[in-house]
Amino acid sequence: MTSTPQPRSHSQDEPFGSPSQAMSYFEGRLELYKQSRENPANNSLPEVLHEFLISIGKNTEASLDQYLKVSGLFQIPLTPCEQTAYKKYEKRYRCLDTNQVLFLIHQEFLVRNPVPLDSPYNMRSNKEKIRIIMSSILWMEEMFPAMEFESWKVCFLKFSRDTIKEDLDWLCLYRQRKFLAGKALPREDDEILKRFWDWFELNELDLVKMAFFMAKKGVFKDVLNNLGRLGRIIQELKRVIELPRPLGPKTYWKFDDIVTQELEVSES
User: Fold this and answer.
1) Residues spanned by the domain of 16
2) What is the per-residue pLDDT across 42-70, written as a single tens digit (0 to 9) for each?
3) What's the predicted TM-score (pTM) here?
4) Which of 26, 144, 162, 179 has its CA 20 to 30 A from that of 91?
5) What is the count of structural domains for the chain?
6) How far is residue 132's CA from residue 154's CA, in Å, rounded to a whole number?
7) Residue 95 belongs to some domain of the structure
8) Quick check: is 5 in a domain?
9) Residue that is last in its domain, among 92, 112, 132
């Protein structure tokens, strides 16, 4: 006697109502495949996962199950020597506190469905561009909080050294509230915004692209209610940028994709 397929329970098609609910279900899927969530100390990961699932339309048990089947996260090696997609990701990004959530974001936005460049610059409103820039910085702080030596912040050393401090301060100005409400930007402000946009848009570092693509896909943070937090992050950014360089052998950061390595260079 053959069994009749049972209809999917309604709960499996209901959206996850909170970050904790999404993470709880995700951890249950990991357990089924004998995995445990890596980097559990990152308290921001549940929100990162929840917002990511919403952005790609997988914010239910049923759709997440289907997504995980093709994600590569639970890939089984065919031979003892074969590395799974997730093991390759871990090896490549060993300087990060890698975890399964970041793997899914990386695969979605940088491998399977890379977000194209915006062209021309005026394709989006200034209000939207400011929200994307602010959200990207907030996402970087949430996605990579435990990076050794705060190295995600060191990425901003790639920004124009002539204007970086003033441009970061610009993001914290009170008049940003007016810009976020749709007020037109004066020419000087638009020039600063364009520097930020070009830096994020053309950045080759995966950790920058992951956060930027999240925001470009419409996964905005509540920037108006996070301006104080953004200000604190920017003060930390400026502190890292202002760190003195040693007088003897120079220590600097070389970025190879997302991997940061501290290199010693002899005095020339």
Assistant:
1) 11-112
2) 788 899 999 999 989 999 999 999 999 98
3) 0.80
4) 26
5) 2
6) 20
7) yes
8) no
9) 112
